[in-house]
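does this look right to u?? zinc ion version
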Amino acid sequence: MTAMLEKPTADIEADVADVLPAPIRQAITKVVGGKPVTMTPEMADAFGAELDALRERVVADLGERDATYIRRVIKAQRALEVGGRAMLFAGVLPPAWIAGTAMLAVSKILDNMEIGHNIMHGQYDWMGDPALAGRNFEWDSACPSDQWRHSHNYMHHTYTNIVDMDRDIGYGILRMSEDQRWTPYYYGNPVYAFLLMVLFQYGVALHELETERIRSGEISIADKRETLIGIWRKVRRQTLKDYVAFPLLAGPFAPWVFTGNLTANLIRNIWSYAIIFCGHFPDGTQEFTKEETANETRGMWYFRQILGSANLTGGKLFHVMSGNLSFQIEHHLFPDIPAFRHAEISQEVQEICERYGIPYNKGPLPQQFATVVRKICKLALPWN
Ligand SMILES: [Zn+2]
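got this back:
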């Protein structure tokens, strides 16, 4: 046995503590809607403990209800996909084309949001079902799921709204924060935003490529060879499925299947873009600096997740169709808890926030989206 292994645990822990910087014990103040919001280290500890306790309660309660829920959603999604694709074979009849396209669009939305995004977060890993395991799941999107698990689960959820760390702030294409330095390129902000919306699945697919670092010369395209191959394979597979194989199967009705698939993908792109942008960029959401968040405590991490996210209000169906990302605040607090639980705990989270004087940003989709569009246009200009 080596001397190292014989060392008492307490000594090793002390050594580790020497290497790791101590958690930052400083208050953070943010101005939200014109009012200062302060979180002191003491408040953050108590706040974090309350949220940890809430999380533990939900985790202890996970069981049959959650399993039934996700299996039911998957069943509905499959039925909608099969029904929609079958209906599109008769797409020469306008009502069949409309119904088929709508069913396929809903199926793709469910697949990407309530099923794919949530399963890939590992929300159902505790079930031990390989079909629902986060690391295996592949979704109906141009973005390869293994790349998404890194860019979204790790980068975005760990470094949420930290400028220069969270690449979801503008996806390397847009200026979404005043803290991003303006260049003349950003005159095109509204145009890039529109293109990203209609081509959203490809925008998400290109996420891991880090095009802004390639553009700036920091890395070369050769450094990203593996990533690029992965994207190319997935895009080719998706393109062959929706735009070649299914249209060919329809024989003379191929054009109706082709346009139906194209429209369903477009609807899914616009919808997921709207939900995701409303989750992080409406008025009032905050960005953070690397200095503010270096080695933050768990309570401060929760504080940042809340101030960097926003919720959407609406009915039950709306929440399911948004993959419960309408509860973006709760999703960011507890990304590995089944998403439909976020709806159930939102009242309690809100009540905890109120007690600590932390604003809880929520509003209906049209209102939140309008503020996002305004921000995109405003930040195109150099004086903003
Ligand atoms: Zn997420």
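The radius of gyration is 22 Å. idk if thats expected tbh
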